[in-house]
Design a protein that fits this description.
alpha/beta; six-stranded mixed beta sheet; five-stranded mixed β-barrel; globular
């Protein structure tokens, strides 16, 4: 999925009040950008990091830019281009990326499903990201999670902070399995430098327990790394999921 507009690079000055980031653009301007992420952005919001902003299409919008991507260079900012890792930080992006991949039949284990209904209500006040259906197959309740935390080389972790909402989703998915449906939790990893995914028990023990219970109840889990660049984001390859 390509970004709607050409992204503009700058240096992060600070991220504050969750939804705001001050950025020094390379043309000398200082701007405040919208941060489409309520999480901690652990390891991704250090002042001085190179970030990529998308200009707003509506000139009347209060904030003229949205932060989409952060650029990480393990050897420092002067390392050559090939060493850069691009990480998507927009929590709204995974649903768009996964929706595109579902339409193209590129999600492993879900290729047979041609009917894709986004944002369907179920279990009272809950809403599932996608409801998939196909003739002679059980419906699939698909929940998508945004992931970008990496604290150790190769190890992608979720969540990056306490998520009561995530615990509720796991219980809802387990209930759908009990009713005879399939339920799938897809971790959309907005970076390409991971080799496996694990639950960050130290950051949210309740989520770790709920994840283990959901898996035991028959909820399926899938992790997919993405190709991320200042041009766009797309699902790339599956990652194994480990207990630790």
């Amino acid at each position: 999925m390509d970004f709607a507009s050409t992204l503009i690079p700058g240096r992060l000055v600070r991220r504050y009040k969750r939804f705001f980031a001050d950025v020094a653009l390379e043309d000398g301007r200082s701007v405040t950008a919208h941060v489409p992420n309520t999480g901690s952005l652990m390891g991704l919001s250090t002042p001085g990091l190179r970030v990529w902003l998308e200009p707003a299409s509506n000139p009347k919008r209060k904030l003229p830019f949205t932060w989409r991507v952060v650029e990480l260079r393990p050897g420092g900012r002067d390392e050559p281009k090939p060493s850069a890792t691009f990480v998507g930080i927009d929590t709204g992006m995974p649903n768009r990326v996964v929706g595109e991949a579902l339409a193209q039949r590129r999600v492993p284990g879900l290729e047979a499903y041609g009917a894709i209904a986004p944002e369907r209500r179920y279990r009272g006040h809950s809403r599932v990201d996608f409801l998939l259906s196909a003739p002679d197959l059980p419906d699939v309740y698909l929940e998508v999670k945004n992931v970008h935390l990496l604290r150790r080389p190769g190890l992608i972790e979720f969540p990056d902070s306490v998520t009561a909402r995530g615990v509720k989703h796991l219980g809802d998915l387990a209930a759908m399995v009990a009713e005879g449906h399939r339920a799938v939790l897809l971790y959309c990893v907005q970076r390409g430098d991971g080799t496996r995914l694990a639950v960050a028990r130290d950051l949210d023990p309740a989520y770790a327990d709920a994840f283990a219970a959901a898996r035991a109840a028959g909820v399926e889990a899938l992790a997919m790394a993405c190709r991320v660049s200042p041009h766009g984001i797309a699902l790339d390859r599956p990652l194994p999921i480990s207990e630790t």
